[in-house]
Amino acid sequence: MMQPHGGSEPVKKPILVITSQVVRGGISGRGLTFALERIGHVVWFLPTILLPWHPGHGMATRIVPPTADFDAIAEDLTTSGKLGQLGGIITGYLGAPEQANAIAKLVKAVKAVNPDAPYLCDPVLGDHTSASGGGLYVPKATAQAIRDDLVPLADIVTPNAFELGWLTGREVTSELETLSAARSLGNERVLVTSSPALRRNAIANLLVGSKGAVAAEHAAIPNPPHGTGDLMAGLFLAGHLAGLDDEEALKRASASVFELVARSVKKGADELLFAEEQQSVVQALALVNTRRVMEARARA
Fold first, then answer.
1. Which one, of 163, 156, 165, 213, lies nearest residue 186 by Cα?
2. What are 206's strand-pairing partners?
3. How many other CB atoms sit within 10 Å of the CB of residue 122?
């Protein structure tokens, strides 16, 4: 990896972000782009859908680019002479199932010119607490396209517990079940957000990788704003690109998300306060404990 003159920290390469765009609020592309740029990454942003706000704040207009237009923009990017500058890729919410095919081609094009660029797939499919009582909040065809076309390409996958269960067809109600399901995906790294925790009134992020499994656990915050999964994915990838080992990247990302959520909720906000509390993104003061998860117990 390239090194800057006079220092040992890796150069922060551009990151391609492909996900939804909202006009108001800090979810998805808005919060993710802000966070990555705030810590020094240039961001290429390809929106998959335009919304006025998070759907949880009320139904509103959805503008999905026509498939031919989205495909054309993705194709333009694949032929860009600057494609090799990209250091990583993140994909999230899709506006239509057809977008997965164009995104897969774009990911493969980036990998062709820079095989070391990690691809992180955040499979935004649903959760246990949606307004409908939990479940998919994208059409089943979109969820299937993410599962079949994008997840297999990913170096890192960041599902929540519900999404992991849907992707694998397994029960995910305990830490050991989560670990087993994550292993069954077969990706190099699987980071399960909102994983079952061992402590009461706590929440965990469980990272399963080639060198073992580690969990970062902290107190649960009631009624957190939307967008935590997007931020967790982006900050973990940024830590990985900075050369941090898995446990340290997990710890720092978890601490930043926890602190930003806590500060936002304390101020009564129903959105993550990225601008006002941006220092939490850069260097959180919150302490998050990590622990190794025993593989032998999970596979017994």
1. 156
2. 192, 215
3. 30
Place of tokens 């990272």: 207
Whose structure tokens read 């596979």?
299
Q: What is the pLDDT of residues 26-69, one digit of tens each?
A: 888 999 999 999 999 999 999 999 999 877 777 889 999 999 99
Tell me the pLDDT tens digit for each residue of 117-153: 999 999 999 987 654 456 898 999 999 999 999 999 9
The full set of domains in the chain, from first to last, is: 15-299 (3.40.1190.20)
**Residue for token pair 């998050």:** 288
CA distance 251 to 253: 6
**DSSP H/E element including 162:** helix 161-168
Residue of 87, 80, 84, 82 whose CA lies nearest to 1: 87
